[in-house]
Specification:
This protein is α+β, with helices and mostly antiparallel strands. The protein has helices at residues 22-31, 46-54, 67-77, 96-101, 108-117, 146-149, 152-158, 160-169, 232-244, and strands at 3-9, 34-40, 60-65, 86-90, 120-128, 132-134, 137-141, 177-183, 186-198, 202-203, 207-208, 221-227, 252-257, 259-272, 275-295. The longest helix has 13 residues, at 232-244.
Length: 296
Amino acid sequence: MKKKLMLIINPAAGRGGFKVNLPEALNVLDIGGYRTTLFFTSGRGEATEFAAEFAPEYDTVACIGGDGTLSEVLAGLMRLKDPPPVGYFPMGTANDVATTLALPKNDTVGAAKRMLSGTPHPYDIGGFDGDKFFAYIAAFGAFTEASYSTPQNQKKVLGHLAYVLQGAAQLPKIEAFKTRVEYDEGVIEANLVYGSMSNSTSVAGIVRLNEEMVSLGDGMSELVLVKDPGSVEGFGEILTSILSQKYDSDKLLVLHTKRAKFSFEKPVAWTRDGEAGGEYTEVELCNYHAPVRLIF
């Protein structure tokens, strides 16, 4: 008897690339033992509601879309006591989660085959401000606006390059925020141009954390704090440290923690998994240890 697969599709992701070879991918899944039911989203948040309402009826849930779609699906599964395992068919531009998991990108057939051959792994979920979640990162500061402020038409035409161009455009307006950070090991007070709590080796498709530093299901998140460099040269040193994965700048901190509380003197804009997350003067983040299983 075939297993039941719930496949949530974001038709707007990846320039509508889901249409390419979808019948072949469904055939691969059918041969692999799945009877698939398709759910198409029509707006933000719908994937969360689909997953929360219908996932208990299925053996496995999967989604075709970008990291934002996966984030919504996982948020829905967080409402369930015993959620089914999750497959991911990355269809987008940055695809940080896909990079971390080494999943085929913009390839529905390859992703279907990978899901069939993969194994469900424990996967940590981030908690944000009490009742919100993030799949792999919550962040503020330099370049974090790029993922959601980049015009959709540019994403469709330029793809990943659109994020790079939008990030470069933000250089003249980088701001430092007086910040107090409370985390497992203590307190840090500094003027920060960037801060994040993440569970990923890839951020915005550009920055890579050393794979030895990141474990996706250990109950710990990576806290990355970038202090005000004070000059263009100082900022260049930080970028060099990040891109070389040496993290040897005194302006860059990479820590491990289960929780973090950020306090600011004025409201600061945050992003969650590349989407606008609101402005806060105080926000608490935490790591939910492996409440879901991701297939890879």
